[in-house]
C-alpha cells in the first residue's frame, strides 16, 4: 500500500515543482535584486527550497546546454537577479486555445497503441481538463492521424495475420511522388506514435517500411504473401532512419532557433560557428527532401554544402517570391531571401 502512494506523491511533488520553476523565472525577472527571504515568502516556500530551485534552474535552458544556453542569474549577498531567462519570460498561463490543444494532444497520446507511462498521461490530462473547465468538453473529434486511419491499420493487421498480398498506392515524401506497387506484408508496428507496415516490395525487390498514413489506397489480392527467403526485417533498435556512408552529406549553418534539429535527427558532426551559429552535418536520404527541410527552417538555416542543394534551395525560394510578387501598381517589393552556398 505504501509503495504506490509514495510513487504517486513523488509524481505530484515533481509536477508541482515544475510548475513552480516555470513561474519562478518571470517572477524574478519582474523583481531584479529581490531578497531571497522576500521571494520565498511571496511564493509560499521556505528559503531553503527556493535556493534548491535556483540551483536546479542553473542547469536548465535551451538545447545545446552550454554557456549562453542555460538560465543564468547573479547573486549579491541574499539578493538575486535573472540575467538570462532562456525564453521563459512570462508566467505559465494557458489561453483557451492552448488548453484545448493540450487536451486534444493528450487524448491522442493516451490512445496511441503501446504507449508507456499511461498513468502519467491520465494524471496530466485530468489536471488540464479540470483547469480548462467547460472548455475541455467542447465538441472536438480526435482521430489518430499520426498512426494512419484506424480502419486502414486494422485492415493491414488483418492482411498480415492472414498472410495476404496487397496492392497499394503509396506517396513517397522523399521523391514527392505517388506510385502503385504490390507488396507482401510482414508486420505492423508503431514507432514514436507513428504506425508503419513492413513488407517485401516486389517493385523494389527489397524490404521496405511504409508509413500507414501515406498509403492512399490498398486492395487485398487473391494470393498469399510470399516474401523471399532473403527478406530480412529491419533493425529498428536505433530508430527508423539509419545513416549510411553512401547517403548525401549535408552541412548547414544554423542559428539558435534551428539548433533543435540536432535533438531530432542523427547528426555526424556539430561544431560551434561564429557567434551563436552551429555547423551541423547530417546524412539525408534524398536532396529533394533536404531542400524542403531547409526551406522549412527558414532564416534559421543556411546551406554550406553540397553546392547542388544550395542551388535547389535558392531556385525554390526565388520561385516562391515570383509567385507572391505584387503588381507594380501596389509598389510592394517582396523582401529578399538570402541562401548561402
List the helices and strands and how they pair.
Elements: H1 2-29, E1 34-35, H2 36-43, H3 47-57, E2 72-76, E3 79-84, H4 96-110, H5 118-132, H6 150-162, E4 164-172, E5 177-191, E6 194-201, E7 206-211, E8 215-224, E9 249-254, H7 261-264, E10 269-272, E11 278-283, H8 287-297, E12 301-305, H9 307-323
Helix pairs in contact: 2-3, 4-5, 8-9
N/C terminus separation: 64 Å
Shape: globular
Low-confidence stretches: 1-9, 142-148, 328-341
The CATH homology group name of the largest domain: Winged helix-like DNA-binding domain superfamily/Winged helix DNA-binding domain
Kindly provide the name of the CATH class of the largest domain.
Mainly Alpha
Helix share of residues? 25-40%
> What is the strand content?
15-25%
**Major β-sheet, in short?**
5 strands, antiparallel
CATH topology-level fold name of the largest domain: Arc Repressor Mutant, subunit A
Overall residue-averaged pLDDT value: 77
- Tell me the total number of β-strands: 12
Tell me the count of domains. 4
Q: What's the gyration radius in Å?
A: 26 Å
| Helix-strand makeup class | alpha+beta
Strand order of the largest sheet: 7-6-5-4-8
Number of helices: 9
SSE run: HEHHEEHHHEEEEEEHEEHEH
Second CATH tier, the architecture of the largest domain: Orthogonal Bundle
Amino acid at each position: 500500500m505504501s509503495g504506490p502512494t509514495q510513487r504517486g506523491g513523488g509524481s505530484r511533488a515533481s509536477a508541482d515543482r515544475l510548475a513552480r520553476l516555470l513561474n519562478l523565472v518571470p517572477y524574478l525577472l519582474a523583481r531584479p535584486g529581490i531578497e531571497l527571504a522576500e521571494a520565498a515568502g511571496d511564493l509560499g516556500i521556505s528559503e531553503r527550497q527556493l535556493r534548491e530551485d535556483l540551483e536546479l534552474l542553473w542547469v536548465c535552458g535551451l538545447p545545446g546546454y552550454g554557456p549562453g544556453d542555460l538560465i543564468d542569474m547573479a547573486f549579491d549577498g541574499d539578493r538575486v537577479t535573472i540575467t538570462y531567462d532562456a525564453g521563459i519570460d512570462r508566467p505559465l498561463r494557458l489561453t483557451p486555445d492552448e488548453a484545448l490543444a493540450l487536451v486534444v494532444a493528450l487524448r491522442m497520446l493516451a490512445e496511441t497503441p503501446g504507449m508507456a507511462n499511461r498513468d502519467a498521461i491520465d494524471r496530466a490530462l485530468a489536471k488540464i481538463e479540470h483547469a480548462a473547465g467547460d472548455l475541455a468538453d467542447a465538441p472536438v473529434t480526435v482521430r489518430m492521424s499520426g498512426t494512419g486511419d484506424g480502419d486502414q491499420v486494422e485492415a493491414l493487421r488483418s492482411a498480415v495475420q492472414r498472410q495476404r498480398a496487397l496492392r497499394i498506392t503509396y506517396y513517397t515524401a522523399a521523391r514527392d511522388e505517388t506510385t502503385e506497387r504490390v507488396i507482401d506484408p510482414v508486420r505492423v508496428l508503431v514507432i514514436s506514435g507513428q504506425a508503419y507496415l513492413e513488407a517485401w516490395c516486389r517493385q523494389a525487390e527489397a524490404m521496405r517500411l511504409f508509413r500507414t498514413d501515406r498509403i492512399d489506397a490498398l486492395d487485398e489480392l487473391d494470393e498469399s504473401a510470399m516474401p523471399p527467403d532473403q527478406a530480412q526485417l529491419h533493425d529498428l533498435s536505433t530508430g527508423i532512419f539509419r545513416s549510411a556512408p553512401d547517403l548525401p552529406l549535408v552541412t548547414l549553418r544554423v542559428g539558435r532557433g534551428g539548433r533543435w534539429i540536432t535533438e531530432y535527427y542523427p547528426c555526424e558532426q556539430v561544431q560551434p560557428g561564429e557567434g551563436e551559429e552551429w555547423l551541423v552535418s547530417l546524412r539525408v536520404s534524398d536532396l529533394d527532401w533536404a531542400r524542403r527541410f531547409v526551406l522549412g527552417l527558414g532564416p534559421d538555416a543556411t546551406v554550406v554544402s553540397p553546392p547542388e542543394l544550395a542551388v535547389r534551395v535558392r531556385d525554390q525560394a526565388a520561385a516562391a517570391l515570383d509567385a507572391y510578387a505584387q503588381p507594380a501598381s501596389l509598389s510592394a517589393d517582396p523582401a529578399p531571401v538570402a541562401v548561402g552556398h
